[in-house]
Amino acid sequence: MSHCPFCKKKIAMSKAFCSRSCKENYFQLIAIQVPKPFLKRIFVFCTPEQREVEIENFASRHGWRIDLLKNKIVELAVESGYTKEIKLNS
Ligand SMILES: [Zn+2]
């Protein structure tokens, strides 16, 4: 057995992803680049409301899905020590 790299579901060894949407999401997630200064700005200088708006603008500017972008930002923010929270607006 192998695991879907996006949702971590178990899949057959012969498959790379469990579904087409997982494949698309996975590659979109890889394509998302969040610059360090942007990350710092939204976590250090923005209120949670401003942060939401910044993230929405950032997503629409690049044509990325907002939920994937948020996942990525949370991941990076935890890595960089800006937040210990899994949720963005708390
Ligand atoms: Zn999957």
Outline the fold blueprint.
Blueprint: E1 2-3, E2 10-11, H1 20-31, H2 36-45, H3 48-62, H4 66-80
Antiparallel strand pairs: 1-2
Residues 4, 6-7, 9, 17-19, 22 line the site of zinc ion.
Features:
90 residues, mainly alpha, two-stranded antiparallel sheet, 4 helices, 2 strands, binds zinc ion
Describe the structure.
- There is one protein chain.
- The protein has 90 residues and is mainly α.
- Helix content is 58%, strand content 4%.
- It folds into two domains: 1-30, no CATH class; 32-90, no CATH class.
Give the low-pLDDT segments: none
Element pattern in H and E? EEHHHH
Enumerate how many helices there are, as a single number. Answer: 4
Number of strands: 2
Q: Average pLDDT value?
A: 91
**Domain module tally:** 2
Short précis:
With 90 residues, the protein is mainly alpha-helical. The protein folds into two domains: 1-30, no CATH class; 32-90, no CATH class. The protein contains four helices and two strands, in the order ββαααα.
